[in-house]
Write a structure and sequence with these properties.
heterodimer, A: Ribosomal Protein L22, Chain A, three-stranded antiparallel beta sheet, 11 strands, 36% strand, B: mainly alpha, Non-ribosomal Peptide Synthetase Peptidyl Carrier Protein, Chain A, 5 helices
Chain lengths: 188, 84
Amino acid sequence: MIGNDVVDLAAAAKESNWRRKGFLEKVFSTEERSIISSAINQHQMVWLLWSMKEAAYKAHQREFQLPRKLNWQSQHCFLKILSENEASGKVKIGETEYFTCSEISEAFIHTSAVKQKNRVVKKGIFEGPSRKTKERLLQEISFILSCDKADINLEKDVLGMPFFSYKNQRIFDQFSLSGHGKYSAYLL
Amino acid sequence: METNKIIERLKTIVKPYVQNEQAFQDFGQDTDFIKDLEINSANLVDIVLDVEDEFDIAIDNDSMDNMMTVQDAVQIIKAKKQEA
């Protein structure tokens, strides 16, 4: 199972004040908070760890058919490699581990999470309205499934997770969508 | 504490984070913070913190887990107020 998450860093700076009292404590463990406080770029580190948690939980939701929860403390981040423009590591949720790979730029952070370490993924990150990203994904899916894109629809199930249907039948859900600020992304 | 009064105060707390104004018009017990109001997930942390401040309660992680709708929040607030 796979999941992804994108954070628009400028939007995050405007919308969220992670320095407010109690914010970090609600989301991050003591270990994670010490990674943040010792980071050179704390803003970036907060959102890197955040996107790792969100991407991993999306994969976890798919894996176990779970509803969305506000349970960031149950997702434990382990950062293995961090460079200027990428990071990799894993996130543990209960007994399950997800491997994460993050792309870091001045403008955004995008994290992909996979359960199978060798899973080959294809990602797309775009600026602009999310319908354009969905349109591109639709194109990819119609190619993979070799069917006309007019015949497939993007829908959401009761858990709020997206899937593609063909003539009213669920046919594909091995993908993940995310969006924040001016960015949106898919992983498949 | 009356449910209606709690909902009124929640509405004021949630307002600045709402992305779907249309759904906000119908704000009520069944309103889902993510599915209906399309609040971004980081702002849900703010909502939890704002609720703690407004109602002078501490919301533990287990309670926070399930705070997805207005009704969930009302129940948590009532339970925490009773404990206090």
